[in-house]
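ok so heres the complex, two chains, lmk if somethin looks off
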Amino acid sequence: MASINKAVLDLKRLDLLANNDSVIHRLDARAKVLVTCVFILCIVSYDRYELSALFPFFIFPAVLIALAGLPPLFIAKKIALLCPFVLVVGIFNPVFDREVLVNLGPLGISGGWISFASIMVRSILTVGAAFILVGVTGFTAVCQALERLGMPQVFAVQLLFLYRYIFVLSEEGGRASRARELRSCGRKGLGIRSFSSMIGHLLLRTWQRAERIHMAMLARGFTGQFHAYRQSSFGKAELLFVLGWSALFVFLRINNVSRHLGTLITGLFT
Amino acid sequence: MSHHIVEVKNLRHVYSDGTVALKDVSFIITHGESVGIIGANGAGKSTLLQHLNGSLEPTGGSIHIGHTPLSKGTLPDIRRTVGMVFQDPDDQLFMPTVFDDVAFGPLNLGYATADVEQRVTEVLELVGAGHLRDKPPYHLSGGEKKRVAIATVLSMSPDILVMDEPTNGLDPFARRQLMALMRDFEHTRIFTSHDLDMVMELCDRVIVLHEGEVRADGPAMEIFGNDKLLAECRLEKPLSMQGCPVCGGGPARVSRPHPPHHHHHHHG
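and the predicted structre for the whole thing:
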């Protein structure tokens, strides 16, 4: 649980990055959300054996990190945190898919390994893009942008609340876990049984807190409608940002730039 | 200004599990009064407070806020009149930024955008939290959270301010800050607290709850002077009325309405 606490702290840091000021930060959130969506769509639309064509897409996170002044190492660590999950998703591909697709001299690389690598690269790109989006926009602004782009308000509000109370709940969970650890004296305690009741308690406490929050909302005249206060405009810079990046992504999606570059270079030597 | 009156008549509350939280509670609080509601854990303080803005429905009895009976139809109006500050600011601050949180009430009341902006700025300045307006609430310290929570209620211009354990969990400095803030309010104020020194400094009148009933209701000095009553209700004198632990001397002279100061000095 200590690591969860730390992860939450890091999440706060990611959110704080959104308070910085840069060309990218100043753009309307909708533009950034749209571009990130196009980016992710382009990447997931590739065939599962595609690998080389994915690499040019790294230009997007790289440029954004550079322009927005985000700490690259921090973002990389955040992405690395998710790698174990991706590993689980992709690890059986090499086992089941043994058909050799590429021959590097005597070494035959099976389709399974290629699709596995493809999954890894795609996850790094998409997850990275999502983190960067939050880092240059802030989670709240992302939710508001989604709502203004047509997502039903109920979902936007749910997302906002989820994000707001992740901190409170993880702190509560962290405390409960620490209390359990301290009383189990370095042994396993009651093992899985104590965890199940702990999670039950956490759920009940969450429920009670939800009731209190609802009460607080009613006390302040809540009638089911969330009123957005902030207004920002979608201007020329935003249009340029969206069109420019989208055009590039579509171009990269249609043309395998890595391959063209490869044939160009090998062509020079023959 | 008759609409600042809080009248509770024979209020009874039984929770769905059969617990009788309030047996029979009656009192009237008039305009501008500052009242402390004290009592042991489980005496019914929080239940009582939740009735004052209609968060709970009475099992029996009635509540009038300024001659308006509390009912479903009058609820929106009464909730604007009675500003409720919750015990845990994390329950009260649910919006992404301090500004949004303070603006939440006024926006729900349908004020114009420019008005909301001005109102939010004003109340944040009033509670000394102007510099926090763009911060997310979870980045604030306990004292800051509390002050912002108060601002969220003040922004709706309530006539009656109800606070559950306002000084709970605050450091001595933050506690003093908060007390100074509350002393300046002209609203009718109702607090519950175990911080009896705070109650003595801020409240002219004290209501003692004991097992769901009003055990005593009177001037603060009178109630805190009654050792027998306090002991029976699992309470004790405020620390500033007790003897000095170092020199064993009598209680410090308390001159109300100014806060009591301890005048003992120990040298060497």
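quick notes: Chain A has a mean pLDDT of 82. thats all i got rn
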